[in-house]
Amino acid sequence: MGRESTARRVRSSNFRGDKSVTKKMRIGADRISFRDLARFAARRKTEQFLADRTGVDERTAKRWLSGKSRATGTAVSVVVADILSRLE
Question: Which of 57, 54, 56 is nearest to 79 (CA)?
Answer without folding.
Answer: 54
